[in-house]
Design brief:
- The longest helix is centred in the C-terminal third of the chain and has 237 residues.
- α1 crosses α8, α3 packs antiparallel against α8 and α4 packs antiparallel against α5.
- The N and C termini lie far apart (188 Å).
- The chain is mainly alpha-helical.
């Protein structure tokens, strides 16, 4: 293929993977953490941008190579489904793909025949293989040239033919990592390179210190494990002693159980004999009690007969009393109904009388109110009459006085006039 051999990039891929591993395992202080963060940001290819024409050209070539690798990895899938993609590809690309398929088949057939045949025609086979390899490379170049000339077709093929073989996917991924690695190397200045070297030395020193601390901790862990094993050994000894004591205790318990069984059997025999004697006595008592029971049954039957007769008499008396009670209650009920009817009638009359009384009380209150108003009017008229009489008396007295004073005034005036005339005549 035109993309080259994957073995070319093996060392670069390993270098990129080593550089992508975490290098800040042993840092503890915040200052070192900030330094590590800045350094990792500087190492990140996503943070780098081309700053020269040569760098841009190199990266452009690598990106084009990645695109060609992706499209070339899709060629086998497209050839397998050529009928489905024929309308999308067009006649020219389809013909080139058919030609490429033929060359691939010839290459496979030639390789298979070369493995089966002897080495006598090795030179001739090698010459044919080189020629066929050149034709296959040219075919791949033509197909890629036609496909990359139409970006929309490339995108559609990537979407439709998603499945790639795992070696091709791995190689494309490795080449992408190589592209990032090259971009990083191209954009790294000598000062940054020195900073990276210094950073790596600091990381190595910190890793060394961490290794020493891990060794000390492993020694402490081994001591703790030994102490733990000694404690476990002591506990195992205690467990063995306990097991021995438990076995002795089991033997003692077994002997005690055997003795208890023997004593229980002996006691069982004694109790069985005593129980048999007790059963014989109880059997005699049962016979005596049976005879007493028969005598009592005969006696109780006679008393039961007398009690039944008495019961019949009492039941007859109860029935008579019940009938008498029903008769009396019927009479009382009739009397109660008559009294209740009279009470209902009187209650209705009482309600009518109460209504009339309420009407009469209302009329009486109205009459009393009218009388009170009339009385108040009479008292008011009398009071007004008295006031008017007193006023008239005062007015008449005032008028009489006024008349008397007027009369006296007129008489005085007449006397003065007569005196004046007398004096004039004397002169």
């Amino acid at each position: 293929m035109a993309a080259g051999d994957p073995a070319i990039f093996q060392v670069s891929l390993q270098d990129v993977k080593q550089r992508k591993k975490p290098l800040v395992k042993g840092l503890a202080t915040p200052e070192k953490a900030m330094i590590t963060l800045d350094a990792m940001k500087a190492l990140d290819p996503c943070q780098l941008k081309p700053d020269s024409m040569e760098t841009e050209r190199i990266i452009t070539i690598l990106d084009e190579t990645i695109a060609k690798l992706e499209m070339s990895s899709l060629i086998p899938c497209i050839i397998d489904s050529l009928d489905r993609f024929a309308d999308m590809l067009g006649p020219e690309i389809t013909n080139n793909l058919i030609e490429h398929q033929k060359l691939s088949n010839e290459m496979e057939h030639l390789l298979a025949s070369w493995e089966e045949e002897d080495t006598t025609r090795a030179e001739e086979q090698r010459g044919c293989l080189c020629l066929l390899e050149q034709r296959l490379k040219c075919s791949v170049r033509n197909v890629l040239r036609l496909l990359l000339a139409n970006p929309l077709l490339c995108q559609a093929l990537k979407y439709e033919a998603r499945a790639r073989e795992s070696p091709a996917e791995v190689f494309i991924k490795a080449f992408g990592e190589f592209r990032n690695f090259m971009l990083e190397r191209l954009l790294t200045s000598p000062m940054e390179e020195e900073e990276k070297i210094k950073f790596m030395e600091d990381i190595s020193l910190q890793i060394k210190k961490n290794a020493e601390a891990i060794t000390a901790l492993q020694a402490e862990l081994a001591a703790a494990i030994r102490t733990r094993e000694e404690e476990i050994h002591k506990k195992d000894n205690v467990i063995k002693d306990l097991k021995t004591s438990m076995q002795d205790l089991a033997k003692v318990c077994k002997a005690g159980i055997q003795q208890i069984k023997q004593e229980g059997e002996k006691q069982q025999k004694e109790e069985l004999q005593a129980s048999q004697a007790r059963c014989a006595r109880l059997q005699q008592d049962i016979q005596q009690l049976g005879a007493q029971l028969n005598a009592l049954v005969l006696e109780h039957r006679a008393s039961e007969l007398a009690l039944r007769k008495r019961k019949c008499r009492v039941e007859t008396e109860i029935v008579n009393w019940i009938q008498k009670y029903d008769t009396d209650m019927g009479e009382k009920q009739a009397e109660y109904e008559d009294v209740n009817a009279a009470y209902t009638e009187e209650k209705a009359q009482l309600s009518l009388l109460m209504e009339k009384r309420a009407v009469l009380l209302q009329e009486y209150s109205q009459i009393e109110e009218e009388r009170r108003i009339c009385q108040e009017k009479k008292e008011q008229a009398l009071k007004e009459f008295t006031t008017m009489t007193l006023a008239a008396t005062r007015i008449q007295a005032f008028w009489r006085g006024y008349l008397v004073r007027s009369l006296f005034k007129s008489k005085r005036k007449k006397k003065k006039k007569k005196k004046g005339k007398g004096k004039k005549t004397k002169k």
